[in-house]
Amino acid sequence: MEPATPLALPLDPAEVFEALQQLHMTVFSQSVSPCGKFLAAGNNYGQIAIFSLSAALSSEAKEESKKPMVTFHAHDGPVYSMVSTDRHLLSAGDGEVKGWLWAEILKKGCKELWRRQPPYRTSLEVPEINALLLIPKENSLILAGGDCQLHSMDLETGTFTRALRGHTDYIHCLALRERSPEVLSGGEDGAVRLWDLRTAKEVQTIEVYKHEECSRPHNGRWIGCLATDSDWMVCGGGPALTLWHLRSSTPTTVFPIRAPQKHVTFYQDLILSAGQGCYVNHWQLSGELKAQVPGSSPGLLSLSLNQQPAAPECKVLTAAGNSCRVDVFTNLGYRAFSLSF
Amino acid sequence: TGLSDHEVIRKRLLIDGDGAGDDRRINLLVKSFIKWCNSGSQEEGYSQYQRMLSTLSQCEFSMGKTLLVYDMNLREMENYEKIYKEIECSIAGAHEKIAECKKQILQAKRIRKNRQEYDALAKVIQHHPDRHETLKELEALGKELEHLSHIKESVEDKLELRRKQFHVLLSTIHELQQTLENDEKLSEVEDAQETIMEADPKP
């Protein structure tokens, strides 16, 4: 057998630095553009990359189509969360939330449209913002994170209208229950709290770790992911991934997976979840695992389903996590290809 | 020039494509016509005439064949057009069916989801005991409670009665004791008076 020829190593320090950066990159958040053709991804270096889904999915896609169209420096810290309205991209991470115009974002040297910081109690530490949630009916944004409060900001005026207090430790995730309308928040303190937006009060508390069926004390009590579908809620993290019936506060189904899940969402008649381990898990509400599709990152932190009606050809599931790659699943059953920073 | 050669070859191939040599035959016809005009004997002339006629009929035959083929091609084209249109229609129909089936799939998924939600809740409800059973148990317990409280009432009444009777008894005893004491005191006083009278008789 021939001895393997040594690879030519990039001795250029800039290239080495870039390679190291790619190696240690974590993509925390994703957001689809209102037209459905672009995907924004935010990483731990504070950069946001915009990928063109329509180019990468088209029949004449080349290797360059899987690279970002533009990458810019958005925050000084990691970009933990992003959401899109019908014209803006909102990104948050290091205590500030910034707004960008989707129409301008593809141009070089794009500047943020505005930046706001919620009123924190101490000015010494600036707590990170872990989750953003849009309330379309009120045209407001809910921010939650390290200071254990949910702040609500009016998107027209930029003023912070309420601060909902109740969590005793930082908040990981938010979900919107459209019918009531209520906001659900899950945090490190192990509780899922439901807040009524009109009265700004906590209406229901579910302390997940206190229920024997799902608690896993060796993992902790933190709630890493939350999703809701009017009467039902699924949450996971330290405790096992469980489906809850909200009105009776009872856990109905415990999904048998040991790895803590970091993102969960309802899709048609399934529940999709991802977390530690490279798989995207497809669950039926009865608790059966319908499919386990491997991705390319060793752990996944966010899932995004592009259901924008304007671009049905770009209807894909994208998953990102502990690597510089964003996996694209065209048919939910397998990974078609990966976009990369 | 090269171009005109190309054109010429192209034209010749088009005209004489079937390779039966019709073009050559027509050229030969001219020559044979001249030969026939110049023929000497009657026999030679007649045979030449026959040859020309046969050549002509051959040419006519191949022309007829070509016309038939042309006709056939036209009809084949029409046939293909028809089939093409039919296929287009069935493609459109299939597209519609696909869209319809997709809607049905979504509906079926929704139904499945609802069923599974129902099952999940039903499982939880099963864990709790049956409502009828619990109601029956509650009724039985209620009756028992009533019964026991009746017993308690009657026992208390009895106790009251006994208490009152004892009270009467005790007070009677006390009265008797008092009476006995009084009687004793009275008899003591009488005895004392008697001894005084005996010690001191009337002077």
Biggest chain pair interface: A-B, 13 and 12 residues
Secondary-structure element sequence of chain B? HHHH
Rg of chain A, nearest Å = 20 Å
- The radius of gyration over CA of chain B amounts to 73 Å
Low-confidence stretches of chain A: none
- The shape of chain B is rod-shaped
- What is the residue-averaged pLDDT of chain B? 88
Question: Strand percentage of chain B, roughly?
Answer: under 5%
β-strand number of chain B: 0
Judging from the principal axes of the Cα atoms, what is the shape of chain A?
Answer: globular
How would you state the average pLDDT of chain A, rounded?
88
Organism (chain B): Nannospalax galili
Subcellular location (chain B): Nucleus
Family (chain B): Belongs to the THOC7 family.
InterPro entries (chain B): THOC7/Mft1
Description:
The complex is a heterodimer of chains A (341) and B (203). Chain A is mainly β. In chain A, 5% of the residues lie in helices and 46% in strands. Chain A has helices spanning 13-23, 53-57, and strands spanning 27-32, 38-43, 47-52, 70-73, 81-84, 88-92, 97-101, 114-116, 129-135, 140-145, 149-154, 160-165, 171-177, 182-187, 191-196, 201-207, 223-229, 232-237, 242-245, 250-254, 261-267, 270-275, 279-284, 289-294, 300-305, 317-321, 325-329, 337-340. A 4-stranded antiparallel β-sheet of chain A has the order 1-2-3-4. A 4-stranded antiparallel β-sheet of chain A has the order 5-6-7-8, with no helix packed on it. A 4-stranded antiparallel β-sheet of chain A has the order 9-10-11-12, with no helix packed on it. In chain A, a hairpin with a 3-residue loop joins strand 10 (140-145) and strand 11 (149-154). Chain B has 203 residues and is mostly helical. Helix content of chain B is 91%, strand content 0%. Chain B has helices at residues 2-15, 22-37, 42-127, 131-199. In chain B, helix 2 (22-37) runs antiparallel to helix 3. Chain B starts with a helix and ends with a helix. The interface between A and B is medium-sized, with 13 and 12 residues.
